[in-house]
Amino acid sequence: MTRAKNALAEHRRELLRQMLRIRRFEEKCVELYSAAKIRGFLHLYIGEEAVAVGALQALTPGDKVVSTYREHGHALVRGIPASSIMAEMYGRMNGCSHGRGGSMHLFDTERRFYGGNAIVGGGLPLAIGLALADRMRGEQRVTACFFGDGAVAEGEFHECLNLAALWELPVLFCCENNLYAMGTALAIEHKQTDLAMRASTYEMPAWPVDGMDVLAVEETASHAAEAVREGGGPHFLELRTYRFRAHSMYDPDRYRDRAEIEEWKRRDPIDALVRREKISSDEMTVIDKEVAGEISDAIEFAEAGELEPVESLTRFVYSPGSPGGGPP
Predict the structure, then answer these.
(1) What cofactors does this protein use (predicted)?
(2) Which of 43, 88, 153, 313 sits 20 to 30 Å CA-CA off 68?
(3) For the chain, where are the alpha helices, taking DSSP H only?
């Protein structure tokens, strides 16, 4: 009994460490973006850490993940090294997408992480295609597809849920409902704001989950993923969460009331787990120091990387041997 309790406590501390990794990584990205070390668009996951950390506990290394442009947290938890992600942010060739994707297009086939997608809802068709391939091969795998509440207004959302249900595909749909599609509030965009209820009209199990509670996310996602893996068809999770920062670093964030943001910050998923598990300040200091070291190493790795030579910029754009495509 004592051994089991210790194992559970250790697991929950690992959940805390993973959430803190994401938080500190994103905070450092803000600094680097402000210093013009990171360019382009940057969408932060601060506040939503419990979703990625909790949901991805349900997957095996053989399962697949399709994400959004707010995917740094998913990539870190999935096992892509922070150094490889940071180098990609810098646009360096030692990044996980060889410097060609940047913040919104993290990709790692070894870890079955298939993006990172800049198009709202753009990962949904990819996810059901991956799931269809697994089913045709007779492989017991789950494809977890993350997307935001804004994607629910897109046509591919309804097309993909319909096909997944019709063909009984092994997809775990993870809707990160942070209440805003860029600057548009959910209640302004949708008459029916219960997104799990909407998904259930496609006759698939669909549950709302407190996305600020990592343990609730882990428990529900594990139950859903197991059902999907055992042939139960697609399942849908509406993960009710909140981003503490603006939509992106370009966003002045004038559409939200400050009091609303502060109210959600009182539900910070990291603080909540610290209180629940009675983590001491000394323990937090040790974890924070470990995470800080990892991020420092990641920055050093990124800054040591090289930019792609101008001569090879058309590589992967044209097929080998074609005009402008370079040698095979």
Answers:
(1) thiamine diphosphate
(2) 313
(3) 2-34, 49-55, 72-78, 82-89, 123-137, 155-167, 186-189, 195-200, 214-229, 258-265, 269-277, 281-304
**Model pLDDT for residues 103-161, shown as the tens digit of each residue:** 999 999 999 999 999 999 999 999 999 999 999 999 999 999 999 999 999 999 999 99
pLDDT at residue 274 above 50? yes
Long-range contacts of 194-202 (CB under 8 A, 24+ apart): 194/238, 195/149, 195/152, 195/238, 196/236, 196/237, 196/238, 198/152, 199/161, 199/173, 199/175, 199/236, 199/238, 200/236, 202/161, 202/162, 202/164, 202/165
Structure confidence by residue, pLDDT tens digits, 215-262: 999 999 999 999 999 999 999 999 999 999 999 998 999 999 999 999
Tokens representing 214 are 């990592």
Which of 166, 178, 174 has its CA nearest to residue 253?
178
Nearest-angstrom CA–CA distance, 175 and 279: 30
Tokens of 228: 């999907």
Phi, psi of 145 (to 5 degrees): -115, 115
Please say whether the dihedral angle defined by the alpha carbons of residues 231, 206, 260 and 212, taken in this order, is positive or negative: negative
Question: Phi, psi (5° rounding) for residue 81?
Answer: -60, 140
- Residue 297 has which token pair? 């190493």
Task: Compute the distance between CA of residue 242 and CA of residue 50 in angstroms, rounded to an integer.
Answer: 10
- Distance, in Å, from the CA atom of 81 to the CA atom of 103, rounded to the nearest integer, reads 14
Q: State pLDDT tens for residues 277-316.
A: 999 999 999 999 999 999 999 999 999 999 999 988 888 8
Q: Cα(150)–Cα(180) distance, rounded to whole angstroms?
A: 7
